[in-house]
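User: Predict ATP-binding cassette domain-containing protein's structure from this.
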Amino acid sequence: MSETTAAVLDCHDVTVRFGDVVALSNVSVSFASGAIHAVVGQNGAGKTTFARVIAGLIDPDEGSVRISGRDMPKGSVNDARRAGVELVHQSFALPPSFTVAEAMQFGGSGGKLYTRSQLERRWQAHLDALNINVKAGQRIRDLPVESQQSVEIARALVTDAKLLILDEPTAVLSPEGAEKLFQRIRHLKSAGVTIILILHKIREVLAIADTVSVLRGGKLVEGPVACSGIDADKLSELIIGPSARPLDEDDRAALTGSASSLHTHVGVSGKDGAAPPILDMKSVSSAPDGDGPPLTDVSLAIRPGEIVGVAGVEGNGQRTLVRALSALADVESGTIALDGRQVTTLPLQGRRIAGLRVIPFERNVEGLSLTSSLWENWSARKLLQGSLLSWIRPSALRSECKSALDAWDVRYATVAQRAGSLSGGNAQKVILSREMDEDARLIIAAQPTRGLDIGATAFVWNALDQARRRNCGILLISSDLDEIMDICDRVVVMLSGRIAGTFEPPYDIARIGAAMTGVTHDR
Ligand SMILES: Nc1ncnc2c1ncn2[C@@H]1O[C@H](COP(=O)(O)OP(=O)(O)OP(=O)(O)O)[C@@H](O)[C@H]1O
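Assistant:
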């Protein structure tokens, strides 16, 4: 651990309530300075609430917070920042139309006026000092997600941060991106910054953190304990708790990295290689649409009962692929057929009636209306599929919604609550419960387990497997190569809007990785 063991953070008996929900219950914890502290727990366990209390964004109902030995006035962001606390949120908050320099200035102390070139010079020096490879004049929206995150971190470090909190920083990163982030975090630690990391993946916790603390149902059930004294199995037990359904051995191994059974998927027995494809894309090219490179000559078939994975560094056309399949991108040439029927020019509603379901990349923007109730969000699929409004009975929908959310173990108070009040993982589960229904024929799942806890991730894998057994076709787009290799029957790699390689089990991670970076093409 660190040379110094003085506490940078002391929480005493912190309780936070949202109406009837107790998000944090009498949490008392102390974190030593100069170390990397992981905080883990299931979706809705209270991790983000904990981070927001420390950053002064939430005023706890009870309890107190001390930073570097000083009592913090309750719920004061400015006092927390003055004490050196900076929080990088789960979803990025940089204004997309700003340049990097403008975004950095926005996060700085402000005051003096600068010309554009002065501003850029000022922040370029800061970025260079942190070894962040981004040009200060670039617009945020033109940056890949990994660079946006680096800019968020750089912005948090504009002030003299002593305690940096990163809320699920790896959820948006590729494995290489996560490794780069970890290097940056180790570097910050050696410069004396204390880091709190909210993480879901146990293997990441054990790879980077000095200590780990576990929240369950708003209570601190363990920690901080030294990571050197705990193993993956024990940690997953602490997270899930004694009453939860146990994970099966394969899922546990894949989720915790505790065994060598990774990447052994050998195809599914129910797959019928001779059956006509559910999805048949032939030579599809799309117009540029500002959301990644256009598709160029993409051909892809998915048969009943088949899970096809799309691997690739983010920003290589995966979003355009989802948009083309959802009738949101302009297809210039080529054809798309669903169950033998041409749908190339059919709007989304018609495709949904034909059995298309979409779990979108951005759950808060494309997947949910945050200001609408849970049952309204859940019922949206009926409207999307063109049911007549007069047929819709709100009371029946509310009870259907309740059963579906309970089956997915969503943590919520009432189906009338706003979707925006759910924790990130629970919001994702609402979309999954809506899109993975019995009538689905083709499920496009974009990052379906991003931000989910280990129990929920296993649940999603199981739900995808059930859908496959019902002979659905599934297109799984994920930046988690382990996930792709564990559950897909075939993997295609996207690079610059093209299919750059097709791979079948047993997978060779080195060859897939090479195709992702364009080192080699096809097998
Ligand atoms: N603004 C809010 N209004 C109402 N309830 C809230 C609000 N914010 C959080 N909650 C509830 O508090 C509980 C803890 O939520 P929190 O976001 O802290 O969990 P989390 O551990 O970060 O979950 P995840 O891993 O899904 O992000 C959840 O039950 C959540 O629904």
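The chain has two domains: 7-243, 245-355+439-523.
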